[in-house]
Design brief:
Largest sheet: 8 strands, mixed
CATH superfamily of the largest domain: Alkaline Phosphatase, subunit A
Structural class: alpha/beta
CATH topology of the largest domain: Alkaline Phosphatase, subunit A
Number of domains: 3
Strand order of the largest sheet: 11-10-12-5-13-23-6-24
CATH class of the largest domain: Alpha Beta
Shape: globular
Number of strands: 25
Distance between the termini: 44 Å
Number of helices: 19
Helix content: 25-40%
Length: 649
């Protein structure tokens, strides 16, 4: 059932119809993305040739909402139509669209077989501008160039549109209305400021990604070809949201970066704010319950497998990594070469696919390692790689060992800043500045738990009988406990009401954690309250553990907490597609993925991000086109004489 704010596309055969010319066509997807701007999610519905009514059987009864809802623009009345998967705009008289006293009017053969129907009570001229402007980047200087384009062969298409739409309807409306349509197209193509691909995936409040029918960019269809700038993503582990502001007066690299770019006020982390789950969220746009990497330490009872942050042989198992497609796999599917260095487990295949070049995560501390990483990234972008994603854990290591307010951490910020300054120099020297979008992200923040912090260490082992459990996963801010089935109630009751943490049965875990709806979630979850640290059990059931069963090592900084300001992190970006010198409102970690897909013109997979939260960072496609080429104005003006010629024919 099609609801208000959705799209229905009914297919009415007019000769052979290829499947790709309906709901999977790129223009179709562009329409569906735009429809989300007037509310609701997208639903694409196609009738099969056998079930589709013939032209003479199709009626324009407004009450039959599955098949008809007109778009009104005064004057004239404009009705957008597909013809073999292409966009057409025939003119239709109002009396043909709506009869007095509800009388039905037959749709004649002047109407085309593929009809787009936005189910909305009111559609503004602004929406029409946006709709038409989807083709504007491809009309630039191309009226005589027939390329492999979604608005393919514009001359041929326009001639079909004009001959079938204007030649028939033009005799009804006459010269004046034809001129009005031409002027309308000129305004639409020049005034609309929308980007070529709008992504409207599932809301960040959903607990699971929508199906491909409900999430734009998720159908796997390759977006239309157009010039695409390269993308470099630099992840600095443990970069707390306020580190930059605390050290700004002593820095030169980051200020230079942001002078020509965008800074989010902060980025809200996921739960838990741990490395492996956050890395996967950045790469997929999904919450942990949807991408399956729930924590730094996990257990799969079915396979008897343990996931341990500190054990590469455990994290490299394919079974952990098949729930969600990361951005580099999507790029590889679209024949875009990707370079990844130290980035999560990019070296583990997804559905037997690997990126072109990848070295997975391994400990790589030190500023020299970071400088080397940046140089490798630039080297890859100077070649034919279109996506580079690199990682540094130097800041995180220092934050854990010395704490977020230490002199050592401030020195580390200066070292990273110097490396960034040299990186920007090299980008400018090699001419990559105007060809590469650079995004700096992090996975989580850091909070102080050293001397004077008031942190209380909670001995969870005092409340849990180790013989009642087969695994205890994690420590610090969060812990999962897997009791034997007959001991679940006993273990839970022994933990209830204890100071320093909240305890949840699996089905009691708050929805806002976006955590509980995955098969690997254990029966009991402990979440530490601020200023408390959960100590692990001194037994073999504890993961992680040292050979001597020491449950933890003293640190001055840690992370993993929820609802804590210190867990917030950063988002910096600059490049030809980003606005310059702005501070953007806060975003969520799940929102970053959509920018990656957008910038690379990749089909976004189902995700939990919210496009509207990040769209304002980008320079619009219309502004880029108008500033870089006069072709749009020329192309649109050429439509006027073309209309007149065909009208006279």
């Amino acid at each position: 059932m099609v609801r208000k704010g959705q799209i229905a596309i009914a297919t009415f055969p007019h000769g052979p119809v290829r499947k790709q010319t309906t709901s999977s066509h790129p223009i179709n997807l562009a329409f569906s993305r735009l429809t989300n701007r007037i509310g609701g999610q997208t639903h694409l519905e196609s009738t099969t040739p056998s079930s589709a009514p013939r032209h003479e059987q199709m009626w324009t009864d407004k009450r039959d909402r599955r098949y008809w809802h007109r778009l009104t623009l005064h004057p004239p009345f404009v009705h957008f139509v597909f013809m073999h998967g292409h966009l057409h705009i025939p003119l239709v008289r109002e009396e043909d669209m709506q009869s007095p006293r509800g009388r039905k009017n037959q749709v004649t053969r002047a109407h085309f077989p593929f009809v787009l129907r936005p189910e909305s009570e009111s559609v503004s001229p602004r929406f029409i501008w946006q709709l038409v402007s989807q083709c504007s980047p491809y009309l630039v200087g191309q009226l005589g160039a027939l390329a492999n384009d979604p608005c393919a062969q514009p001359v041929t298409q326009m001639r079909v549109f004009l001959q079938m739409g204007v030649a028939r309807c033009g005799r009804i409306f006459g010269f004046v209305n034809i001129l009005l349509v031409a002027l309308f197209l000129v305004v639409a193509l020049n005034k609309a400021e929308v980007t070529a691909y709008e992504y409207h995936p599932t809301s960040a409040t959903t607990t699971s990604p929508a199906s491909s029918e409900e999430t734009d960019g998720s159908s796997g269809v390759t977006p239309p070809p157009s010039p695409v700038n390269k993308l470099l993503v630099i992840m600095m582990d443990g970069f707390r949201w306020d580190y930059y502001d605390q050290s700004k007066g002593e820095l030169r690299g980051f200020p230079l970066f942001l002078k020509e770019g965008v800074q989010a006020e902060w980025v809200e982390p996921i739960f838990p704010s741990e490395s492996y789950p956050a890395w996967t969220t950045i790469s997929t746009g999904l919450h942990p319950e949807n991408h399956g990497i729930l924590a730094n330490y996990m257990f799969d009872l079915k396979h008897g497998a343990v996931f341990d942050l500190d054990d590469d042989s455990s994290t490299s198992k394919v079974l952990w990594w098949q729930d969600a497609e990361p951005i580099w796999i999507t790029a590889t599917r679209q024949n875009k070469k990707s370079f990844l260095h130290l980035w999560s487990r990019c070296d583990v295949p997804f559905q037997e696919i690997l990126p072109h070049r990848c070295s997975g995560y391994r400990p790589a501390p030190g500023i020299d390692q970071f400088r080397n990483t940046l140089n490798l990234a630039v080297d890859s972008l100077l070649k034919d790689y279109e996506l580079a994603m690199v990682y540094s854990e130097h800041l995180d290591i220092v934050g854990h060992e010395f704490g977020p307010y230490s002199a050592e951490l401030k020195q580390t910020m200066r070292d990273l800043d110097d490396a960034m300054y040299d990186f920007l120099d090299r980008m400018a020297d090699t001419g990559l500045d105007d060809k590469v979008n650079v995004i700096v992200v992090s996975d989580h923040g850091m909070t102080w738990i050293g001397g004077g912090s008031g942190t209380v260490y909670v001995p969870v082992g005092d409340y849990v009988n180790s013989s009642y459990v087969y695994k205890v996963l994690g420590k610090g801010a969060m812990m999962q406990i897997a009791p034997y089935s007959r001991r679940i109630d006993t273990v839970y009751e022994n933990l209830k009401g204890r100071r320093g943490f909240d305890v949840y049965r699996r089905d009691e875990i708050p929805d806002e954690y976006h955590f509980k709806n995955h098969r690997l979630v254990q029966e009991i979850l402990l979440v530490a309250q601020p200023n408390f640290y959960l100590q692990g059990l001194q037994s073999s059931q504890q993961v992680p553990r040292s050979p001597t069963y020491v449950p933890f090592r003293p640190q001055r900084g840690t992370h993993g907490y929820t609802n804590m300001t210190d867990m917030r992190t950063i988002f910096f970006a600059r490049g030809p597609d980003f606005k310059k010198g702005i501070v953007h409102p806060p975003i969520h970690l799940v929102d970053e993925y959509q920018l990656f897909a957008k910038l690379l013109h990749l089909p976004a997979q189902p995700n939990n991000g919210t496009w509207s939260k990040v769209a304002g960072m980008l320079v619009s496609a219309a502004r880029r086109a108008s500033s870089s080429s006069p072709g749009v104005t020329l192309a649109t003006l050429l439509l006027v004489p073309l209309l007149l010629i065909l009208h006279n024919d």
